[in-house]
Write a structure and sequence with these properties.
815 residues; alpha+beta; 6-stranded antiparallel beta sheet; 19 helices; 34 strands; 6-stranded mixed beta sheet
């Protein structure tokens, strides 16, 4: 700056900087120092901002030379003049502060009348900010790919660069609002987002906003970012919004995310209905507003669907539904319902060939215009639907329909191709689930056929058995229980556990159960029965081949109960001991039972334990899956089961409920092993229902045995059976005297349906039924017994054998 004083020119040293442009000056004049200088360089006027800038009052400055304010005068010299006056329009200078510091300012000079000059100055750092801010605003509002909108506190547009060409039809105008160019619903959502920014001050970053407008066919997606504008006092004065068109980016990203979710969620279950539900859950709301999947009725049963072409009965059943707006509409078809007959239409034939079909509401009505179909398959507000077939291996497993009601974009061919791709993958998962359902049902049916009936009720005991496969029902295994009725009102309780899971274990279990029933019918001692069973398992392991021999084995517990004596004889092959629940409600583990080796080990003996059971006692036989614990502490598991069994004890309560309660507690976390539980409440035959005698081996006692029998039958009121029973006793006692010797025991037992005659002798000779020739004088005794009784047989013990014969009472025969 050049000024003249006393005939000399003074220079204000210019700092290197781009000259100020006039439009860069801020409008906040309170921050700009104003100085008026005359032609001689004397300060005439000094504003309050100037006082604040240098902390010099007007009285101190006015009337004095301007060069006194310069911080450096050593370089005063003549310079090129910017104008005829020698004073530049704008520049920078170093001024002296009252404190002695140097203040760098930017200034601008304007001529005034009477050769005076008006100097406007501000701190250089503030001017730089103003310059950069102005440059930034000019750059932003010059963009044609980024829309800028500045809104006041009422969200009215005060400045914008959004023209109709920028977003294909939407253009903002100053003084307008978003509702002027967007649909009311979309404008309400966008303004709500801007209002949150204005109220909270939290910026909005890349919020995806749908911009629907009558001016834009189909609408567009915009990435909206916004931040609050504050005035000098820090109060919210408006909000600045930046938006970019991401329509081309949003759809690929949405489709990629949908494909990913479909790959992750669909097929995670081997249940057909769950797989169908996963499919519709993936599609809603990411792809449409309502979706329903239908499956062929055969698929739900695990079978292959029939091949159908054209309309009519499609044999489809609604499998799964999903709605983005809440519960499934009651007017539409509900899950589990069967599809009504459909008209024969090219659309139907198309998706039966595996094609995806797009229809708007009018086309859907034209194609399937029956009231029943429209009312149950077209949702309220549905304007576009895409249908795809669940098609694989040439089989139509079902279909998937997706409607758009709230989403305004209609489906297009790209959507149809995407749904067809997802449906194709889902069809493979449905088919896998279908195959699993078929195989699992076959395996479960096999196992159920191999297991006995859940409850039995006999004179010896009433029983209840429960079974829980490993994994909460997803697997099958080799655990089993059995209740076998034996002659003389006795009963055998069996529980066993085959190594492993799956069909091989189930098949082994079936063979063992059949063998036990056969051996039990031979009325073998429990130890002898387990010995034969051990040999069978060894043979099965040999048949399985070397690579599977180590996987074939089992444990088993066999208990033989006699209701006449109340005695129970038990033997174990590596199986956990049972739990005895006494009639008084106390429970204990039968630790006195000595377990032998598991079946298949061979070469080791089994031991028998006999206990007396009071009437009403409950014997609990179980497999180790019921006492398995995470810490592998079997004793703790047995104690816990004993406590729970006592807690659930009810003297006359149903055993089935007790068993289910125990398994429900065990099933809180799916077991890794199968669980079988057999509960048996024992009974004792009344003493008056039996009669016993002992005779010496003398032919003369046959008459005594007949007379004792007749008297006892008369006392029981069974005179109708006197002749037959007398003949049976006579033949059995005579045979014992002739072939076995004495002493000879005779016992009669009866219940409400059966009369049992037993003859015991010290011989181990096996009686055999044969057909006597016409000239033979003997050999007809057992033949006559077999003809006169319902069944007969023999069993052995340590002191000999017992031959028994049963007769049905007249009332039981009539029944």
């Amino acid at each position: 700056m050049h000024t003249e004083r006393n005939g000399h020119w003074l220079e204000v040293r210019m700092m290197r900087s781009s000259p100020w442009r006039g439009d860069a000056w801020p409008s906040v004049f309170g921050e700009i120092a104003t100085v008026v200088i005359d032609a001689q360089g004397t300060v005439l006027c000094w504003s309050r901002a100037a006082e604040e800038l240098l902390e010099r009052t007007a009285a101190e400055v006015c009337g004095k030379p301007a060069e006194d304010l310069l911080a450096d005068t050593s370089e005063w010299c003549c310079r090129d003049e910017a104008e005829e006056t020698g004073i530049p329009h704008a520049g920078r200078a170093l001024l002296r502060h009252r404190s002695g510091d140097v203040v760098e300012v930017a200034f601008q000079v304007s001529p005034l009348p009477a050769s005076s000059l008006l100097v406007l100055a501000a701190p250089a750092r503030r001017v730089i900010d103003w310059e950069q801010g102005a440059a930034l605003l000019r750059a932003l509002f010059a963009q044609d790919q980024i829309g800028i909108g500045i809104h006041d506190s009422d969200l009215t547009v005060v400045r914008t660069n959004i023209t109709p060409d920028m977003f294909g039809g939407i253009g903002l105008s100053i003084g307008g609002r978003l509702a002027d160019v967007m649909s009311p619903q979309d404008a309400e959502g966008a303004e709500a987002a801007l209002r949150r920014v204005l109220d909270t001050g939290v910026p909005l970053v890349r919020h995806e906003q749908w911009m629907g407008s009558p001016q834009i066919p189909g609408g567009r997606w915009s990435a909206l970012s916004a931040f609050r504008l504050d005035d000098a006092q820090g109060r919210a004065s408006g909000v600045a919004a930046l938006c970019t068109d991401v329509t081309g980016q949003q759809r690929p990203r949405r489709e990629l995310e949908l494909r990913y979710q479909a790959s992750v969620q669909i097929g995670a279950s081997l249940d057909v209905k769950h797989t169908a539900q996963d499919l519709v859950d993936v599609l809603v709301p990411a792809f449409g507003d309502l979706a329903y999947a239908a499956l062929a009725e055969a698929v739900l049963e695990g079978e292959e669907p029939p091949k159908i072409r054209g309309g009519g009965e499609l044999h489809l059943r609604m499998a799964s539904v999903a709605s983005a707006s809440g519960p499934w509409p009651a007017a539409l078809i509900q899950p589990g319902e069967v599809f009504p007959p459909w008209p024969d239409h090219p659309v139907v034939r198309g998706y039966q060939r595996g094609e995806a079909v797009i229809l708007d509401r009018a086309s859907y009505v034209d194609a399937f215009g029956t009231p029943e179909i429209l009312g149950r398959f077209v949702p309220e507000g549905g304007h576009s639907v895409v249908c795809a077939a669940l098609f694989t291996r040439g089989l139509l497993l079902g279909s998937i329909d997706v409607w758009r009601t709230e989403q305004r974009e209609p489906f297009d061919q790209q959507d149809a191709e995407l749904l067809a791709e997802i449906a194709s993958r889902a069809a493979l998962s449905v088919d896998n689930a279908r195959r699993y359902t078929r195989e699992h049902r076959a395996a479960v049916a096999l196992q159920q056929r191999l297991l006995p009936q859940a409850t039995t009720d006999s004179l010896a005991a009433d029983t209840a058995g429960v079974y829980l496969p490993a994994g909460g029902g997803a697997e099958i295994g080799g655990d089993w229980f059995d209740v076998i009725s034996l002659p003389s009102l006795r009963c055998a309780f069996v529980v066993g556990d085959v190594i492993g899971h799956g069909l091989p274990s189930t098949a082994t279990m079936g063979r063992l159960r059949a063998a036990i029933q056969t051996l039990a019918d031979l009325e073998l001692d429990p130890t002898e029965l387990l010995t034969h069973l051990d040999d069978l398992v060894s043979r099965l392991a040999t048949e399985a081949g070397p690579e599977q021999q180590d996987t074939i084995g089992a444990t088993c517990l066999y208990a033989l109960y006699d209701p006449v004596t109340g005695c129970c004889t038990l033997a174990s092959a590596g199986h956990p001991p049972p739990i005895l629940l006494r009639p008084d409600g106390t429970a204990r583990v039968l630790e006195e039972l000595s377990p032998g080796p598991p079946l298949g080990v061979g070469g080791m003996p089994f031991e028998t334990t006999t206990i007396d059971l009071a009437p009403g006692s409950i014997l609990a036989l179980y497999t180790d899956g019921l006492i398995a614990r995470a810490d592998h502490d079997v004793d703790a598991g047995q104690r816990y089961l004993t406590e729970r069994l006592a807690a659930h004890y009810r003297p006359d309560g149903p055993l089935q409920e007790t068993g289910r309660a125990l398994l429900a507690e065990a099933a809180d976390s799916p077991s890794r092993d199968d669980i079988a539980l057999l509960l048996a409440r024992t009974r004792v035959l009344p003493p008056q229902a039996t009669a016993a005698w002992e005779f010496q081996a003398d032919p003369a006692v046959v008459t005594d045995a007949r007379e004792a029998t007749l008297q006892q039958l008369a006392a029981w009121g069974m005179d109708d059976l006197a002749f037959t029973t007398e003949l049976v006793v006579s033949e059995l006692v005579t045979n014992a005297i002739r072939y076995a010797g004495g002493p000879i025991g005779l016992r009669l037992i009866h219940d409400v349906t059966t009369l049992i005659c037993e003859v015991t002798d010290p011989s181990n000779t096996q009686p055999r039924l044969r057909r006597a020739r016409w000239a033979d004088e003997s050999g007809r005794g057992l033949f006559l017994i077999a003809q006169l009784t319902s069944r007969w047989g023999s069993r052995y013990d340590q002191s000999g054998k017992t031959i028994w014969a049963e007769q049905l009472l007249p009332l039981a025969t009539a029944t």
